[in-house]
Amino acid sequence: MNAVRAETTGDAKPIDPGVRIGHVHLKVADIERALGFYCGVLGFELTQRYGTQAAFISAGGYHHHIGLNTWESRGGTPPPPGTTGLYHVAVLYPTRAALADALRRLMQAGIRLTGASDHGVSEALYLDDPDGNGVELYWDRPATAWPRDAAGDLAMFTKTLDLNDLLSELKPAE
User: Which domains does the chain have, with CATH numbers?
Assistant: First the structure.
């Protein structure tokens, strides 16, 4: 495989600002277990199955945000530490209240967080799915509220997220 060196000179033209990451496919060991987590706990909806080897899930009726497959991984184990691969997939929630609901779902299912951070621009929950894939659940603050330094440049940080404060976003059940 040829090494590719990315040039970071001022001559490089940036990518079109309309580009978005549309979906991710995850190799999983067991489709049913993965669906139990992504649909049963997180609340994604199953949009299509390909037999017993693949499933596609989404939020809001999109064709799929996440593909789950066992094409190369049925019964497999997560890659060992120290190897390359996916660090995490990030799921963007539209509001802080929606992220609080995700935290409630995780707590009810007994899912352990691996981290919870306030990055200034966003608040994020970190966890692993049943196959050891890293998952980040987050919401973005409005760009006007992002921290900036004296020169006006973005000044992200990492602080511990107050989970009780996040949960206070939930409306009491009627």
Answer: 23-75 (3.10.180.10), 87-169 (3.10.180.10)
Can you give the chain as a three-state secondary structure string? Answer: CCCCCCCCCCCCCCCCCCCCCCCEEEECCCHHHHHHHHHHHCCCEEEEEECCCEEEEECCCCCCCEEEECCCCCCCCCCCCCCCCCCCEEEEECCHHHHHHHHHHHHHHCCCEEEEEECCCEEEEEEECCCCCEEEEEEECCHHHCCECCCCCECCCCEECCHHHHHCCCCCCC
Q: What is the pTM of this model?
A: 0.89
pLDDT tens per residue, range 75-134: 999 999 899 989 999 999 999 999 999 999 999 999 999 999 999 999 999 999 999 999
**pLDDT tens track for 159-169:** 999 999 999 99
CB 70 within 8 A of CB 53: yes
User: Rounded to the nearest 5°, which phi and psi values hold at 109?
Assistant: -90, -5
Cβ 91 vs Cβ 138: under 8 Å: yes
